[in-house]
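Final report, Chapter 2: Outcomes

The project's central promise was a pipeline that accepts a single protein chain and returns its three-dimensional structure in a standardized token representation, suitable for archiving and comparison. That pipeline is now operational. To close this chapter, we reproduce one record exactly as it appears in the project archive, with the input sequence first and the structure output second.
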Amino acid sequence: MTAAVAALGCAAVLAHSAIRGEGAQPPSGGSRSGRGSTAAPAADDAARSPTERRWLAVLHTIDARRAEAWRLGDPALLGRVYLAGASELGEDRRMLGGYLRRGLTVKHVEMTFASVTVRASSPECVSLVVVDRLGPAVARDAAGHRAVLPHDQPTRQTIELRRGDGQWRIARIALA
């Protein structure tokens, strides 16, 4: 997700320019049909182990909370995604704030997960090695002009989750 956070930062400038008709135009093919979604299981989920399916479900739940914060333009909701003090929380809030300052809302900020492997776990903490990528997010301005943001590339990361208040949250993300 750290790579996705950086990709969204670069995309903010591109979206702002594309919506205003400056510089490069937004990529074509803005249809959301057939995309990988965090809400629906992938076709190959049956081939995944029960442990992998369990942690994918947790990641999808966390990702849905993040997508909601971005869709609503509410940086405070990111506190349901990350532990307080996590550097990724500050990065994501700054990025979302940048879009909001430009008068843009961003929808479909959703991750797709190619793989997940448990590196270590306890009842309150788990370390996962994940290959993920940010799907095709869309930025809109107040007039309804839209720009499909550039796609992220698959990234292999270690994501540390901690349980707090009965929910799993991201404590740390590092390239694996």
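Archive annotation: The longest strand covers residues 111-121.
This record, like all others produced under the grant, will remain available to the consortium after the project formally closes.
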